[in-house]
Design a protein that fits this description.
This protein is an alpha/beta fold. The protein has helices at 14-25, 32-41, 45-55, 62-74, 91-103, 118-132, 139-151, 156-161, 175-187; strands spanning 2-7, 28-31, 81-85, 110-115, 166-170. The chain binds adenosine-5'-diphosphate.
């Protein structure tokens, strides 16, 4: 199994690049944001629990997120590996993931850090909010989500840097050029 974490601020292009990675490497995509949105759309108990949290752009508590992620990962055994998008977002989540994978004789193989400036992110999300219809894409929610990234989520990077697993990718420019850099990093870690 090959497990990849794609990492970067909101609007960094994680979704776009994930689609291309899945196509080339046939990894199973898990986006915790997509999973939460599906729960909300289906009005599940979990969806009801997280709706207001997500609408406000703050992180869902670790315990809920980790439980959901592990249950999803456990359902896919006969696959080449996972690409995790939007998880882990805290050091506690990263540690829980390591423990979970270790119990299955696996590990995180590579962490791709998509590097994009804050100015570029704000511009991209302002564009996306016009078309996505996502409740959390409005200006003030966006500021909150970026703030959550720079206060909580960035600490996940040193955690993985200490393990020598982070590959920095310039996230500004042509989608295909960025993907070329990503493919090189993945191929070098296979
Ligand atoms: P982004 O555009 O920021 O990448 P996502 O779709 O990944 O957005 O996540 C949207 C929201 O879902 C987050 O703002 C947060 O409320 C919740 N969420 C997603 N993943 C996690 C996580 N790993 N831990 C806590 N909350 C999460």
């Amino acid at each position: 199994m090959y497990n990849l974490v794609i990492f970067g601020p909101p609007g960094a292009g994680k979704g776009t690049q994930s689609d291309k990675i899945i196509e080339k490497y046939q990894l199973k995509h898990i986006s915790t944001g997509d999973m939460f949105r599906a729960h909300i759309a289906n009005k599940t108990d979990l969806g009801k629990e997280v709706q207001s949290i997500m609408d406000n752009g703050v992180l869902v508590p670790d315990e809920i997120t980790i439980r959901m992620l592990e249950s999803e990962m456990s359902q896919h055994t006969d696959i080449k590996g996972f690409i995790l998008d939007g998880f882990p977002r805290t050091v506690a989540q990263a540690a829980a993931l390591d423990k979970f994978l270790e119990s299955k004789g696996q590990k995180v193989n590579l962490v791709l850090e998509l590097v994009v400036s804050q100015a570029e992110i704000e511009q991209r999300i302002a564009e996306r909010s016009k078309v996505s219809g996502r409740a959390d894409d409005s200006a003030e929610k966006l500021i909150k989500r970026i703030d959550e990234y720079f206060t909580k989520t960035v600490h996940v990077l040193p955690y993985y840097q200490a393990q020598g697993k982070v590959s920095k990718i310039n996230g500004i420019g042509e989608i295909e050029v960025i993907f070329g850099d990503i493919a090189k990093a993945i191929d070098g870690s296979l």
